[in-house]
Amino acid sequence: MSAAVLITGASGRLGSALATALADENFALRLTDLRPFPSEVPPGAVFEPADLADADALARMARGCRAILHFGGIPNDDAPPEAIAAANLAGVRHVYEAARLAGARVVFASSNHAMGYHARPARPDQRLDAASPYRPDGLYGLSKVYGEQMGRLYRDKHGVESVNIRIGSCTPAPADARMLATWLSPGDLARLCACAIRAPRTGWAMVWGASDNAASFWAGDDRALIGWAPRDSAEAWRDAVAGLRSGDPVAERFQGGAFASRGYSRTGEDTAGP
Ligand code: NAI
Ligand code: 15L
Fold it and tell me: Which of 20, 34, 94 gets mutated to test ligand 1 (max ligand atoms within 8 A of its CB)?
């Protein structure tokens, strides 16, 4: 059997779905989270509770692993800054150190909110690509920039490989008009993670975590390097969700939607400039 894969955040929405999907693909899984796994642990997987603050526990669990899928942490700006820093900043550093010691690759659950203050594109040629600059839309998004750049540092200094997935909105189905651009189906995420684990070489890679959406905000990334292409598309839900807009002009203007609008205090003329 090939080397194991460690999933952090395994009890969360995405981590638990990934654990089930990757167990079905016969990956040998080690699962960890603060909280218990929400259902029966999948066949062939073992679960161990741990805090991302516990660097020693992460290093021990990663020993002998080929990859760490890092899906643990705080997934929004609802928490205090200190909590985001502890879980997302210290946590990702501990994950990379565990990966370095184990000789493992990191697959990092980054977020579209690392780029959330980019305006939504009016035309396809305005879509973002891999060279577009970071524009985080809150401390949560900024923590994802930090995580991606932790990968850059560990690649340059130690040769650790990573695939940074800038996930849009991974839900069973698109829930509003924004998700016609940002939706990532759970199946496409699971296939993307499997490709990221199996790819012979990745270096420091970035892939937009979105399905094949006609209205996508993004184009151009490292998906060919890992051999992934999305199979699903939000278009099938267009009629159901196209009218579901927030009514908030700031949220509608920026890619990050409600995250970009939260706490926004620029006014008048000042909102026009970069
Ligand atoms: P979630 O909140 O359901 O899962 C995160 C898990 O991390 C939870 O089970 C939680 O207990 C665990 N966790 C939090 N702090 C921890 C700590 N200090 N030590 C150990 N475990 C800890 O979130 P979800 O939606 O599953 O997201 C997973 C990852 O994907 C997150 O990093 C999130 O930022 C990222 N992401 C998710 C998107 C989505 O559409 N769901 C979109 C973009 C990024
Ligand atoms: C994220 O980063 C969040 O973790 C997730 O809950 C969604 O809000 C998603 O972005 C999104 O932008 O829809």
Answer: 34
Query: What is the C-alpha to C-alpha distance for residues 29 and 272, in angstroms, rounded to an integer?
Result: 49
The answer to whether residue 1 scores a pLDDT higher than 60 is: no
CATH 3.40.50.720 is right for the domain spanning 4-272: yes
Spell out the domain ranges in the chain.
Answer: 4-272
Give the closest residue (by CA) to ligand 1 atom 29. 71
Residue 188, token pair as written in the block: 């496409």
Rounded Cα–Cα distance for residues 148 and 13 (Å): 21
Using the mean position of ligand 1's atoms as its centre, give its distance from the Cα of residue 14 in Å.
Answer: 7
Dist CA 160 CA 171 (whole Å):
30
Burial 225-244 (b: 16+ CB within 10 A, else e): bbebebebbbeebeeebeee
Under the banding of pLDDT at 50, 70 and 90, the label for residue 49 is: very high
- The pLDDT of residue 155 is 98
- Per the confidence metrics, is the pTM higher than 0.90? yes
